[in-house]
Structures are given as structure tokens and as C-alpha cells.
Request: fold
Amino acid sequence: MGYGGSESRLHGLGRVKWLELSVYPNPAYDFIELKIEDEKLKIENCVCEIINSLGQLVKEQELIITDGKARVNTKDLESGVYVMRIRLSANYFSTSLEVTGTISKRFVVNH
Reply:
């Protein structure tokens, strides 16, 4: 079972915030679990797009983040290499600063 971490920039009102995203297991069989590591963010909207190796969008779903984690079902995907693109909007708990961004992560499905 593999583990993949990625950092991405989120932009908001001239400030830049780094966000840590982990995707596991990689390769996946039935599901991919996402872990977003930043307890100060209150994520309001999070959409996951899965793109195959031909650049085709094969799946899109809104993610429900619970305790910094979300799960994406991969049972309906054929074995292969995919790119997961996460688009999100969030606010800091202590401020009204809104941040938006996109994170991309490569993963493999192996049935």
C-alpha cells in the first residue's frame, strides 16, 4: 500500500497558503482516501475530477470532508493511471479570509 503527499498553493486576498494533501492507498482497488492536513481551514466546497491517461474526464463528484478526510470510490474505474484534480474553496476559522485553489495528484487503479 503506497502513500502520496502533495503540497499546493491556495490563493486568497493576496496571501498564499500551503496545503498538504495525502492520497492513499496508491495503487487503489476499491477506493482512494484523501487526507487534507490543515486544521485551520473550514472547507466549504470541494469537487473531485478524475481524468484518465487520454485526458478525458471520467468522473466528477462533490467531496464531503469529515475530520479532514474524504473517500472516492474507484470500483467503476478501469485499471490504469489517473489524475485526480481537487478544486476547493475554504475559509480560515478565525478570519473571513477566503482561499481557493486546485490540487492535482496522480494515482493508479489496479483491479
